[in-house]
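ok trying this again, last paste got cut off
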Amino acid sequence: MQLVLTDKQMEYIEDKTRHLVVLGSAGSGKTLFACIKTILYALEHPKAMCGVFRQTLPSLKKTAWLEIRKLLISLNIEFKENKSDGVITLSNGSVFMFIPLDDPKKVRSLNLDWVYIEQCEEISMDAYDELTLRVRGEQQAKDFGQILSVVQPSSKSHWLYNRFYRIKADDDDYKVIHFIARSEERFSRNAET
């Protein structure tokens, strides 16, 4: 299988911003982008510890976990899976740990190189801050680590809006990118002509 990324996805696939937020509606390709970016990090950083999170385990299994597994299989990337522990290990020693955030204390003591949060608007600011403290692994110290958050549009009263649009707007460690669904893209192009 050959991956086909949109121009927007290609533009940010190698982005190393510490806090990268991918905002977009359903069908905009943000989850696929995040899964590919997470897999690439694990492949390029042997023995990387990658945490993949969502508010609940059932939701996590139906989204990021499923998508990462499908991509690994379709790309013929060898891996071992321990479903009961929620862990996928690549042949280079990199690990994906799938952990729900229904209790932020579950992530204490983790040393991660990479964090991917699916549907970040579901989690609390305290859970996000706890994850920020966990990006302290060996691989991120050698190169870079990232907290990659996938977000559906949310209200201006949500903590994400205050954190990424108001408070951190001028901080180089924070970046928000917007993906639009291909149907929205076609509609906007037709409206311009």
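PB: full thing came through this time. The chain has a mean pLDDT of 87.
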